[in-house]
Amino acid sequence: MNQSQDEYWMRHALRLARMAWEQGEVPVGAVLVQGDRVIGEGWNRPIGQHDPTAHAEIMALRQGGKVLENYRLLDTTLYVTLEPCVMCAGAMVHSRIGRLVYGASDEKTGAAGSLMDVLGHPGMNHQITLQSGVLADECAAMLSDFFRMRREQKKALRQAQRGTE
User: Fold this and answer.
1) How far, in Å, CA of 141 to CA of 54, rounded?
2) Can you spell out the DSSP letters for 84-147?
3) Which residues are known binding-site members?
4) By C-alpha distance, which of 80, 78, 76, 90 is closest to 124?
């Protein structure tokens, strides 16, 4: 894939991340592509679905499996706005995706090289081609803006509670 295609699909993932934001979830979006068609989409929904596994990547992988009628997602590329966590990286290895493209790095929980490298571990039975930093600034800005808004909301709530005491 070339850079313009990667940016095109990452913009799609950013639109999905916006869906998460609108639902009060951490804004992460993922789109699973095979060739030039979308076979899976997802955005973070663990709060709304009461499901700790309802990360954007997992949702996209599940949908892709149903579309292909196979748990092996060969010859696919997963575009994600944030570096995947350990759970999501493990699911990618098990599903045998061919390539991962992500936007922003995650120093706290990233499992594609930041905190640890699940995908590049030599003991893994499947290796995934990795491209990081695609539209990283836009992906990181959405997350920063979301968490800034959340902090401001909590501060306003605390101030309002103090005012009623």
Assistant:
1) 22
2) --HHHHHHHHHHT-SEEEEEE--TTT-TBTTS-BSTT-TT-SS--EEEE-TTHHHHHHHHHHHH
3) 55, 85, 88
4) 90
Q: What's the pLDDT score for residue 2?
A: 85
Q: How far apart are CA 47 and CA 52, in angstroms?
A: 8
From the number of C-beta atoms within 10 Å of its C-beta (0-12, 13-18, 19+), residue 125 rates as exposed
Biggest CA-to-CA distance, the chain: 60
What's the mean per-residue pLDDT of the chain? 95
pLDDT tens digits, the chain, 165 residues: what are they?
A: 688 999 999 999 999 999 999 999 999 999 999 999 999 999 999 999 999 999 999 999 999 999 999 999 999 999 999 999 999 999 999 999 999 999 999 999 999 999 999 999 999 989 999 999 999 999 999 999 999 999 999 999 988 888 777
Which residues participate in the annotated binding site for Zn(2+)? 55, 85, 88
Catalogue the active-site residues. Answer: 57
- Helix 3-22 crosses helix 56-68 at what angle (to 10 degrees)? 110
**Distance in angstroms (rounded) separating the CA atoms of residues 50 and 58:** 14
